[in-house]
Amino acid sequence: MKGLNTALGAAGLAAFLALGEVVPRVGIVKRAYFPPTSRIASAFWDEFKDSTFWSALGDTLTGWALGLAIAVGAGIVVGVLLSVVPHLREATASTVEFLRPIPSVALIPLAVLLYGTELRSVLLLVVYASFWQILIQVLYGVQDVDPVAEETARSYGLGTWARVRHVLWPSALPYVMTGVRLAAAVALILTITAELVIGAPGLGATIAVAQSSQAVPEMYALIVVTGLLGLLINVGARAVERRALAWHQSVRGEVAV
Question: Is the pTM of this model over 0.90?
Answer without folding.
Answer: no
